[in-house]
Amino acid sequence: MSQAYLELVKAHDALLQKKDAPLYSSRTGLNPAKPQAAANAPVVMIFAPHPDDECIIGALPLRLLREAGYRVVNIAVTQGSNAARKQPRWEELSNACHYLGFELRETIPGGLPNVTTKTRDGVPAEWAEKVAVIAALISEYKPAVCVFPNDNDYHSAHIGTHYLTMDALAKTGHACHVANSEFWRQMDKPNALIETNLQDTADLITALACHVGEVERNPYHLRLPGWMADNVRRGAEVVGGQGEAAPSFSFGTLYRMEYFDGKAIAPNDKKYVVSAGDDIKKLFA
């Protein structure tokens, strides 16, 4: 009786154990999948705690680029804590952003160190210097949307990046839409489930496969579709409503969509399920 599901499990296992999945250590043979955004287009800024986060939380920015013509600027907040891997990780990140069509900016050479709440709480002068770096980038790009981890995303650098970005927004007084993401820990109250179609999902995985040194030790690029499928499972109830019919799409990413008015986050009780055929800009209506 369980043979059909055994075959399903075997198929999943074969995908996760796929030894010949390509990795991209250079741009050779990696043609950009990007459209060209206009120089005066509205800007989405991703504040990525580590190289590779731009791919994992990149569903919304990618759709805004491809469907609404936004510029996407990825800010490499850190380049990891392993000094020997900083330059290789920067090269991998450059390849990933090149493929997706994301612009890439460094914070300081080698990335900001100690981006944690421990620094924020205990070394205020050092934290203020970091905030000033991010605030300068926000003032330069004047983003319409900022994407960064939520304040309880488990990893210390993810949580630190949340507070760093919020402190920089407050310092500049810049008003914009804010999309909090999740990866290491689920948010309590996501309010947006964003579908990625098959091509967008494949392109995010391809870009993630540029982070060769990371996925060689942990092939999470192969697990990304499973994570995105589970986002749809959870989002069906948490965003769509308890007991509501689940969306028919397979892959999605969860966010908390809010608006920062220059001083504080404005309350937002709206919920959004944005399918691939929907206008992605309805998030901002």
Question: What attributes characterize this protein structure?
Answer:
10 helices, 9 strands, globular, alpha/beta, 285 residues, nine-stranded mixed β-sheet, single chain
In short:
Helix content is 42%, strand content 16%.
C-alpha end-to-end distance: 49 Å
| Uncertain stretches of 5 or more adjacent residues | none
Our Rg estimate from Cα atoms comes to 19 Å
Q: What is the average of the pLDDT values?
A: 95
- Strand share of the residues? 15-25%
Helix content: 40-55%
- Largest sheet, described in full? 9 strands, mixed
Going by helix content, strand content and strand pairing, the class is: alpha/beta
**Count of alpha and pi helical runs:** 10
Give the overall form. Answer: globular
Query: How many beta-strand elements?
Result: 9
Q: What is the N-to-C succession of helices and strands?
A: HEHHEHEHHEHEEHHHEEE
Describe it for me?
With 285 residues, the chain is an alpha/beta fold. The chain is 42% helix and 16% strand. It has helices spanning 3-16, 53-56, 59-68, 86-100, 117-122, 124-141, 156-172, 198-208, 212-217, 220-238; strands spanning 43-48, 71-76, 103-106, 145-149, 176-181, 192-195, 252-260, 265-266, 272-274. Strands 1, 2, 3, 4, 5, 6, 7, 8 and 9 form a nine-stranded mixed sheet that branches. α8 crosses α10. 43% of the residues are buried. The model has no long low-confidence stretch (mean pLDDT 95).
